[in-house]
Specification:
heterodimer, A: alpha+beta, Uridine Diphospho-n-acetylenolpyruvylglucosamine Reductase, domain 3, Enolase-like, domain 1, 12 helices, 34% helix, globular, B: alpha+beta, Ubiquitin-like (UB roll), DNA polymerase, domain 1, 2 domains, five-stranded mixed beta sheet, 5 helices, 5 strands
Chain lengths: 287, 161
Amino acid sequence: MIPPEFDYHAPTTLSDAIALLDQLGDDAKILAGGHSLLPMMKLRFAEPAHLVDLNLIPQLRGIREEDGLIKIGAMTVENDILDSALLKEKASLLPKAVKWIADPQVRNRGTIGGDIAHGDPANDHPAIAMALDATFVLHGPGGERKVKAVDFFHGTYMTDMAANEIMTEIQFAPLAGNTGCAYVKLKRKTGDWATAAAAVVLQMANGKVSMVRIGLTNVADTAIRATKAEELLLGKELNEETLREVVSAVAEACNPAEDLRGDIEYKTAMAGEMTKRALLDAASQIS
Amino acid sequence: MSKKLVSMTINGKKVEEAVEPRTLLIHFLRENLNLTGAHIGCETSHCGACTVDIDGKSVKSCTHLAVQCEGADILTVEGLAKNGVLSAVQEGFHMEHGLQCGFCTPGMLVRSYRLLQENPNPTEAEIRAGISGNLCRCTGYQNIVKAVQYAAKKLQETAQA
């Protein structure tokens, strides 16, 4: 399968890339790692007349801590997240989760920003970003703006990002000491999307939940934050009763699409189960 | 659409050609350069039969544009043997019967080669995770894992000698 014809552009600066996108308008698509876009182009689900490749803009890559925030360049590839000593120490949710994304070859090309900006509810980073309470930095002709992860996704393949904007960075506060975190993903095989997956960041005080954020993958038309479940957990112990309540609150938040991975009932049940497992895993890390 | 001139190094040799932007690296290798070692399997970046090394990283060449390879250093399965002598991974697949139909083998070899560069002494679990992006429908992977273990041992012995 060969993609339809297009013109290829490889700008070397962010301002050149934005100017190109602004000029080309809806006819252009951004090429990041290409592991979602190129398969879609082969199938003619996407037929952009122009591709703007961001791979030659070095400032879009890298992981650093600055002004009390972890900042990840949008074009940072998954394997660099997996191997990052800084993230292992201060935001271990990301390396833990990335292990479950695709396979070694795909992780050499696939980028965190591409995974998010694609707007696919089956991608893993949106729910992880929600659990990290992350902010996305977007650059356009008018300059920079920031959007919270929870506000970024409008629907399947629809996001807050305009055609002439580029996601440049993912920012979030490092996880405090004694914070538990887990990403539990049910998938049929390596490289498959999640049947359901849950990202959890958890803090406990005196045996009770003092802070929790839960992001869910592939159980609605966007990644979602399970806010009802989070609210009912606050101040409670993680026992059988509260976990049962969590599972039903998660079920209420879910609205999955039926496909070969399962029907609605199964996926909803799995979203609850993955959340339960992620909570217990996160809690087990807290002393 | 106008063609673009790209130059890259493939298995140590400089290559310069004009390609359509939509030309995938796998087609460029197979059709323009007659390097038919890397195979076209699933074409959706799942099976890994098209795996090559780009600048020291394993990549699925069915999901990579040839124009993106400007200045890149590429290694395909054809570049593994040196002066008619099989590389350690190739010898391992031979000795441990790491293939049956052979369709996945070029990708398995190039990926295993890179895996052993990244981790010269992998555990069995690390080998299985390391080749998880390469599908084999014949062997059940058992002998492939043994072949990689054979190659790891051989490379370590050679390094010590």
